[in-house]
Every structure is written in structure tokens, then in C-alpha cells.
Amino acid sequence: MSNQEPVNSFSSRIVVLPEANIDTDQIIPARFLTTTTKAGLGKVAFNDWRYTADGSNKPHILNEIDPTEHRVLVAGNNLGCGSSREHAPWALMDYGFKAVISTEIADIFKSNSLKNGLLPVVVSPDIHDKLTQNPQQRVTIDLESCTLTLEDGTTVTFQVEAFARQCLLEGVDAMGWLLKRLPEIEAYEKTNGKAA
Amino acid sequence: MSKPKSLFEKVWERHIVEEEGADKPAVLYIDLHLVHEVTSPQAFSELDARGLKVRRPDRTFATLDHSIPTLAPDADGNRPYVTAQAKKQVETLEANAAKNGLRLFGYDAENRGVVHVIGPEMGLTQPGFTVVCGDSHTSTHGAFGCIAFGIGTSEVGHVLATQCLAQRKPKTMRINITGALQPGVTGKDVALTVINTLGFSGGTGYALEYAGPVIEALDMEGRMTVCNLSIEAGARCGMIAPDQKTVEWLRGREYVPQGAAFDEAAAQWLTLKSDDGAVFDKEITIDGSAIEPMATWGTSPDQGAPIVRGVPVAANEDEERALKYMGFTGGEAREVEKVDVVFIGSCTNGRMADLRAAAAIMKGRKVAPGVRALIVPGSEWVRVEAEKEGLHNIFLEAGAEWRLPGCSMCIAMNGDFVLPGQLAVSTSNRNFEGRQGPGSRTVLASPATAAASAIAGHVADPRQFMQLESA
Ligand code: SF4
Questions:
Q1: Residue to test with chain A: of B18, B50, B68, B432, most A Cβ within 10 A
Q2: How many residue pairs bridge chain A and chain B with CB atoms within 8 Å of each other?
Q3: Residues of A numbered 63-82 whose beta carbons fall under 8 angstroms of chain B's beta carbons: which are they?
Q4: pLDDT tens digits for B427-457?
Q5: Which of A86, A106, B130, B151 fits a disulfide with B155 by CB distance 3.0 to 4.6 angstroms?
Q6: What's the CA gap between B307 and B287, in Å, rounded?
């Protein structure tokens, strides 16, 4: 069984949220965390940026674009800091995003994203500038070669932890990978006095 | 002689089931897994979908803290949940715990409380352990020399199913805090200074070790506060080497070994420290004697400053935006920050030592008119102890509210929240926009500072309310 569909190469228009330090409380405010499923969180992604207290739309780019056309979120420096809530990548993916780009992406958010097939792409400040200066552009992301290609043809490589990349490319499921190691885990428990 | 090792390396190596390689992470064994209602339902569903049960129920403990009301139930025993969904979430954890044979510290348990308060309190947290929880402030348990870190819900599922995680070893950083704290300066002020020094993402990719005379002199509560906030500098975890104070704090607690077995364990715990000559990827030093009571002025925990220095002038666009959100221009004295709400509690500062510090300031004084002060003990044990000492009466007489334990206004998902535009001084850990309710503005500070601000009606240096011995 696999966690998700394999991810490989795709092209999409970007959407730019230039703010730095977008924390997971912005991506999905805590009061929406009482859910017991993963489904349907896209409508509350960036809730307090997109809606007023009475639920009507604020003028915000995420209310104006067609999410099926804009699958790549470009955010300001240090994206995803704060809470470990996996609801953040769930909400972004349910909204329609397949990748997020920033100059820095917080550890837990990055790892949570990779586990769900949302690709975190860290780029240098000049590439980031090229993206934000042309916020209408279309980019191509290829996981096999770990490359990001901008509309002007600039191609850069990005880093993805090798195991997470393999999981995404081949649809390998991390829990299954760990479950295969149960004999080693039991042996470790015995040797270290940790058996049940 | 073998190569000198850091505390982190010693604990890490003991938990390796399978070494990491270029194309695969290490398989890391987890000694203690703490579970709460918010980040676990989807993990249990994943187990169900695969026909699996929790592999080590004896190493998995659950509590209710995030979405539960802090007000008492009505005469019929109905709890004032914020929404039906919050109630359902609690019931989901109750059902999942029962089905998997997990110990759940539920409403009837004398130990229920905020997950990072009760772990140490019961001695579930023990030196040298690996501890994880679907909550980023799991770093708290590092105060006992544990590798303790927050995980996402997928990983909660991994640990439930296998008691292991696939992990890459982080880099290490030692933070030496030299000198001695001035009177009136607390662990929270140390933590806010560290975050301010490192910056919001300065710890990204690192496991931190806090060391030096200031850390040694802190009590266990203060050390927990320091480790708790490691994540606010982006760090994976923060740890402190166990010492005699750690041992004495744990002695006699429910889940630690008892009698001679305890002394044996303790002797082993005391070996958990960084060897002389251990090499860190980074090392920094902070002058502890120069630390003053701190309060944040912006919208991220690194945007803090000594209270006496006032609100700083913005140095860049991010700071300008933060000041604008907070409603400050920069350069004003903190007295202009009129307070609407004061929240004392959370896994950062909801322990006995924190409540005592707040009570010492509130005793015989009144909360300023128009200020709502909410005191929320971190656990049932803290609530009962505090009531034994009469602290609740001090708070109630001062005009504050005394609640049942829970996360409450730290995360504001249970119905306790700050209204739009209101300014809260909070002992919790995050001052992000809207963290304490849509449009809320948060100033993070120590329990003493929060109490002083409640009395003064504006952000206040607590030392004006303390009888300090002249240094
Ligand atoms: S008190 Fe706050 S930070 Fe701590 S566990 Fe609860 S919500 Fe998380």
C-alpha cells in the first residue's frame, strides 16, 4: 500500500505570497484543528487572510485565482515555522498546491510536506527575486532531476532528502518501510532491555 | 581513548536500530510517545486502514489538553465544549485509546494536563530517553537530558505502528550561558534572549544543548521553559545534561524506578553529559548577567527586547510590518502598551514554580480595572498543589479567573481566546498574528512579568513589584 500517488514532473503557474515567516497558524488557524479527518481543509487554508470574521471574502489573491491553474506557492523567507500540525500541508494540498518555494523552509513543516507529496523547494535569494518579480510566470518542477525551471529558462537544482525523494518518486510508503524493519526493531528491544 | 561525544550523540547512538546511509535515514527507537486529541485521529485512522494496532501501548500515553474546556461541567456533567466537533475529537481519542489499550489521562484522572507538563510530573520522562509527541513543544522534555522533538501526524502513525521513526541526525549547537542571572530574571527571560540572539530560524537543522552556570543554577521548571522554547528558534530540540537537581526532582515520581533501582538509574543518568572536548557544529555564548526581564513587541518570538529598553524602532520591513500589526510605532516606552488580557499557563509556564512567581506579585494587589486575567494550571496535579498552597485564593482575590488545566489561550482552540484587537500578555510561546484568536495581539513574557502587567494595566517590568535583595 502506498501513501500517495508518485510525484514527478509538472508545470504550473505560481502564486506569490511575499510575507516572510508565514507560520502554520497563518496557513491554518488552530481553531480549525478539531477535525478528525484530513479532508476539506483547503477551504480554511489561510482562513484569516482570506475571510472576514463573518465569513465573507476579503480581497486576497487566494480568493481570486483558479487553484487548478496555480499549483506552486512562492512564499517569503522562512515558510512554515511554528506548530508541527500536519494540517498545514493537508490544507495547502487540499487547496490545490503541489509545491511550495521559499528561501528557507522550517524543518517539521518540510518533513510533513514531503510525507504528503507536497514538494518543498528551497531556492537562493536571487532565484526567489526572479520568481517574485514575475508573479504571473509558469515554472516546471522535476523531482527526478531535482530541478526548477523558471519562465525565462533559468534552471536551478534544489535539494530533497534522498529517502523522501525516493518515497515520492516511487510512491514508497514510509510506514511500510519501517514495518519491514520489525525484526531489527525487536532485536534492538531485546538487546537493550526494552522488550515489552 | 574514544572520541569525546556530546550529550546529544550519546543519547542518539543508544537509540539507533539501523544506521543512516546516503540514501536512507536512521531508524530511531522511541522510548516514550505522548499522544493528544488534536494530532492523533488521522494517525489512528491510518493504523485502522492497515489493520494494525498500537505496537507498544506500554510506551504510549495519551492526554486531553488542546481542545478541552477549562470551565467546569454543568450540574448534569456536560462540559462546555466550544463546538460539537471539539467534543467529537475528544471522544475519538477516548475510543482510540480504549481500542488499543493505551493509558489515557482523561477527565477522571488525577494526572490529566498539558502533555509536556504531565510527562515529567509523573516521571514518564526520564534522562536519556527519546520522547516524541505530535506537538512542537515536545522539546520541553529535553530539560531532563532527553532527545525530545515534535512530529507530524504521519510520524505519529509511524511510532504507533513501529515504535520507531525514520530520522536524519541533526547538527548540534551548544549555547553557553555565562555569569549569573540578576534578581527578578527567570528562565523565560533566558529563553526569549536566546531566541532573540539566534533569530527565528537560527536554530533550523540543529539540536541545541544549553550549558553553563546560568543553566546549572536554574531549577527544573526554569530548564523546562528554556528547552520548551527551542523550537521558536527553529531548532529540532533542546537539551540540558541531567545533574543532581534532575535526579532529586524525579525521585519518587510514579513512573521512575523506585528504591535501589532508582539510585542505579540515577548513577547512569549522571553519565549523560557532553565530554570535555566534544565538538559541536556551532557554539555560541550569551552573557547571562546581562539578561533582563524580556517581553516581545512583534509577531514572532524572536522579536523581543528587555522591557526597560522600550519598544525598538523597526530595523527592516518585517519588523515594520510586525510593529504595525501590534499597533506600535517603535521607540515608545512599554507603559503605552495597555493590556486587555493576561494569560498565565501553558506548557511553557504553567507549572508550580510559575504560579508561585505570579502569585508572589499578585498577592495583596488587584488586577487593573478592565484587564481580564486568566490563570490556567498546566495539570490537575498543579491545580491541586496550587490550591493546597492557597495560590488560587491569591489569584481570585486579585480579581483573576482560576481555571481547570488545559492549553487554553496558548492555542485558543477550546473557546478561551483574545478578542480582535485586544492586547494580551501571555506566558505561552507564540505571538503569531491571530495565535490567541483572530486579530489578537500577543506579548510573550514570564509569569512574573505577566502578573506585574495585570496589576499595572500595561506591560511592566516585574522588578518594581518585587522585594529584591540588593545584589
Ligand atoms: S500549551 Fe500550547 S504549546 Fe503547549 S502543548 Fe498546549 S497548545 Fe501546545
A1: B432
A2: 171
A3: 77-78, 81-82
A4: 999 999 999 999 999 999 999 999 999 999 9
A5: B151
A6: 18
* Locus of grid cell 520522547: B131
A184–B18 C-beta distance less than 8 A: yes
Quick check: helix, strand or coil at residue B141? Answer: helix
Please report the DSSP string for B58-103 in residue order.
GGEEEE--SSS-SSPP-TT-----SSHHHHHHHHHHHHHHHHHT-E
Q: Which domains does chain B have, with CATH numbers?
A: 7-167 (3.30.499.10), 171-289 (3.40.1060.10), 295-465 (3.30.499.10)
Residue B165 · residue B28 · CB < 8 Å: yes
DSSP secondary structure code for residue B23 in this structure: T
The finding on whether B63 has its CB within 6 A of some atom of ligand 1 is no
Contacts of A112 in chain B (CB under 8 A): 152-154
Q: Which stretches does DSSP call E strand in A33-118?
A: 70-75, 99-102
For residue B351, the tally of other CB atoms under 10 A from its CB is 32
Domain A9-160 CATH class label = alpha beta
ipTM score for this prediction: 0.93
- Cβ atoms within 10 A of the Cβ of B220, count? 20
Collapsed DSSP state (helix, strand, coil) of residue A124: coil
Cβ(A88)–Cβ(A27) under 8 Å?
Answer: yes
pLDDT one-digit tens code per residue, B199-248? 988 999 999 999 999 999 999 999 999 999 999 999 999 999 999 999 99
Task: Determine if the pTM surpasses 0.90.
Answer: yes
Look-up: residue for cell 480549525? A32
Neighbours of A107 (CB within 10 A): 23
Residue nearest to atom 6 of ligand 1 (CA): B407
Those residues whose C-beta lies under 8 Å from the C-beta of residue B307, and which sit 6 or more positions away, are B292, B293, B294, B295, B334, B445, B449, B459, B460, B461
Residues of B in contact with A21 (CB under 8 A): 200, 300, 318
State the Cα–Cα distance between residues B408 and B405, nearest whole angstrom: 8
List, in sequence order, the alpha helices (H) in B363-446. 380-389, 391-398
Name the DSSP letter for residue A105.
B
Q: How many Cβ atoms sit within 10 Å of the Cβ of residue B3?
A: 9
Which residues have CB under 8 Å from B20's CB, separation 6+? B26, B167, B168, B169
Domain spans of chain A?
9-160
